[in-house]
Predict the structure of Chitin synthase.
Amino acid sequence: MQAGAPGYPPDTYHNGGHPNFPNPGGYGFGAQRMPEEQNIGAGWVGLAAPGTVLAQAQPRHTHAGYNETHERIMRRRTVKKLALENGNLVIETPVAPNICKQNQSKEFTHMRYTAATCDPDQFIAQRYALRPWLLGREIELCIVLTSYNEDEQLLVRTLNSVIKNIAYLTSRTKSKTWGLQGWTKVVVILVADGRKKADKRFLKLLQLMGVYQEGVMVDHVNDKPTVAHIFELTSQVMVSANGSVEVSQCPIQVMLCLKETNAKKLNSHRWFFNAFCAQLKPNVCILLDVGTKPAAKSLYHLWKAFDNHPKCGGACGEITVETGRGCWQLVNPLVAAQNFEYKMSNILDKPLESVFGYITVLPGAFSAYRYKALQGRPLEAYFKGEALHSGAVHGGSFLGNMYLAEDRILCFELVAKRGEGWLLKYVKSARASTDVPDKLPAFIGQRRRWLNGSLFAAIYSTWHFGRMWTSGQGFFRKLLLQFQVIYSLVQLIFAFTGIANFYLAIYFLFSSATSDDKHDPFGGQGDSVLQIVLNALIAIVVVCLILSLGNRPQGSNLAYHAVVILLALLMGVALYTAGFTIFIAADAAGLTHLSGWTGDNILQLIKLDSFRDIVISLASTYVLWVIASIIHFEPWHLVTSFVQYLFLTPCFVIVLAIYSMANTHDLSWGNRPAEPAKDLGKASTTGGKDGKPGQVEVKTTTANDAAELWQSAQREMAVPRVEEKEHRAPTQKAADEAATFRTNLLLIYILVNAVLVLFFTSSYWKRFVGRKLPGSSDPYMAALFWSTAGLSALRATGSVLYIVFRIFGH
């Protein structure tokens, strides 16, 4: 191919290099090798020794004068005439001398700005170019950090952790892939969803790194609106949230893609995959959300999964809940319950799915994909959700809800990709922490998206399970995947009938416990208590329905808290009843005394249907949780979070399920209206004679301007953030079709659960059981409890197998 063709360097670049850019080896890495742990980033002779503080955090004050400095410099910017590069506006402007040296190459001393006026799918066709590609670098790892309006604290938490992970890659001097020059194989890309929505302190922090300069941006190039502002720099510093700047442990190739308008996360990923990765051709892509903090070496462990397993198409690590210093956030029962839920998912669910080879969801906040595996149908299916959510394509409510969990669709399409046999893996050694909702309304809103998306995505994958047989997997693997589909179908049925099963479990438990007046746990008032509990449950379901249909969680905060507290009290009564029933049965068998622990007494106790069914169900759940946690050497969440999760279980089963079902018409992530901007100025071509291309006039900053703005931004970071109350825009009403779909689905959902409750609590069913199965417990209760036991045992088996396979390197 000739230079200048789409996907290849422009004519002004030869041999894959920029005329002003030296080879990567010219950066100054020495040949001396030192132990990995003691010398991360060894050999770098850039600004100073890694960790050297270039600028201390300024004293805290109320005003730093940044706005005045910014306005003054914006007025005095230098006007330059530049030729467009292949019809595209590209500006290279010096960064502040505080963070570079004059004798370094341009990738360290000049920030490269590109005003992209095209759709991300046309990025290469429109002959845009990125610095690492112009330098001819082979990219092994592309890391994307997606953000909306996250603050500087969350950015520091994620970006600095990523930098430390990359520094660890450079410390692996004996690796065939990494080593001292390993940083040249990694590109970190931040994609911010909307220029005006981006947090100002977020951008100031990037300005201190040299990655962002507001003064060079334009909103139109030759009357074409700028879609994305792309900034590139190989940064040499790490910045703290208070403005302290220190030399990083290795250089980092950083790119900021600041989208002009809000186009949502899928569009951010489309810029990453279809524009940037399409040109850089990385081997592995890692997806992170700003606010997610990967632990030390986590990115290496994720990458290593692909290096060790050629058929690994995707992988995820363990996402943990950020519990704060001294785990103080676990004081909040909602955070503690989520901490327990996350932990048990990472102990039971993810290992089982990894053994199958198909993880139903690789979380977008912390996951990785082999770029080659994503080509074709997986990415096409993944990005279909963007058109659905933007309204460009009308696919109906089913598809709209399904694409609330587009990461699940991507996982299914990847494993089901015809003839390629890709697998998904869980990498336990790769860990990352993230914040979870600590307020009930935010929690309900988040789970609405998760539950609706996962429900419809599960239906989609189950309906299309036949594609697994053409996916190129081995025959035994296909059988495993087929079994997983059946397992998922059972889980789906349990989830859909969750309210009925919860009600019936309470009903059978109380009925059994209060059947004998001599051993009534409520002193002879068992029947009255049973009626109160059941009526309270029915009332709570009705209240949740009314709240879900007519109000946002933010507007019904007090009511939802009252419902959750009442459900927790009912759960406490149910746990007391179960414990009392077990004690009475044990006492009747003589097991409450040491002398009574004989084989005959134990056998007699096991023969009691009421005892056996309750104990088997509870043991299969709670005891297996304990055993699995101990096997994984992670028992502490049982101590800190188990009780909170136990009492909030009815909230998960009833409140979240009803709200999600009642709002299937809401297909938004919280719609963000796009607002075209015209406040940055235009770049229009002028002149051009005798066949020569014209030039554009643009305003840029000098090195002195950059230094003054840098210093002012550093002072500004010491000014305490002014907390502003969030004002949410009113949610746009759904279309009539979506509302009708919502109503019909909700009626079916309530009808199915109500039929189960009415039938299995009817006098007909009692007479049938008494006539056909005299002296035995209710068969539906037995089936429910034994099914719970079987599912729990299967998850535990998968968890144990995962550890065995991990020990032997599979």
In short: Residues 194 and 451 are 27 Å apart (CA to CA). Residues 42-291 form one domain. Confidence is low (pLDDT under 50) at residues 1-44, 670-674, 728-736.
